[in-house]
Design brief:
Elements: H1 7-13, H2 19-32, H3 36-42, H4 48-59, H5 73-76, H6 81-87, E1 89-97, E2 100-107, H7 113-123, E3 126-131, H8 134-145
Parallel strand pairs: 2-3
Antiparallel strand pairs: 1-2
Length: 174
């Protein structure tokens, strides 16, 4: 069955990468850790949206890009903030289906049934997972809920000093 094949093999079969790129990404993964998809993106062999689209297809879940969208606070409040931050999930849609409420949550781990059950219990809704990029979820959480207490925002991360700024190495603190 195609969906049970490793994602790297599926990407080769579908023509997104070749065998050399897969072997290079596997070597990168062995050296640096992480997931094979992260290695493929870091090495520039494919874009994250294309990778996540194929992973979502393999997992049989939708892929969503939150991007810069601002979602209604009423939707965001359906899931407790503590749970959103702890499980790194983010509510992206709500609908009624056959007299039951359905909450779609974006997550980088749609196969994490424990997290989805917790969201379902806390919200009182039937939950459906959608795959989203880890950074996309983090930025959505910060945009809607602010950075975690004691942290600076990823969006407002300090920028390096321009190389053209003069630095006086002779001055010393007294």
């Amino acid at each position: 069955m195609e969906s049970s094949a490793p994602i790297g093999q599926l990407l080769v079969q579908r023509g997104y990468i070749d065998n050399w790129q897969l072997q290079s990404a596997l070597a990168h993964q062995r050296s640096w850790g992480g997931r094979i998809g992260e290695s493929l993106v870091k090495l520039g062999f494919m874009s994250e949206p294309v990778l996540l689209t194929e992973i979502a297809r393999q997992l049989r879940v939708p892929y969503v890009q939150i991007g810069d969208r601002c979602l209604p606070q009423a939707l965001v409040r359906l899931v407790p903030e503590k749970l959103i931050r702890a499980r790194k999930v983010f509510p992206v849609a709500f609908a009624w289906r056959d007299r039951r409420s359905l909450l779609v949550v974006a997550t980088a781990e749609p196969q994490n049934l424990i997290a989805l059950d917790e969201v379902s219990f806390a919200s009182g809704k039937t939950v459906k997972a959608a795959l989203a990029g880890d950074r996309d979820i983090t930025l959505a959480i910060e945009r809607h809920l602010g950075p975690p207490p004691g942290w600076t925002s990823m969006a407002a991360a300090p920028r390096p000093m321009p190389a053209s700024m003069p630095v006086d190495y002779r001055r010393r603190a007294a």
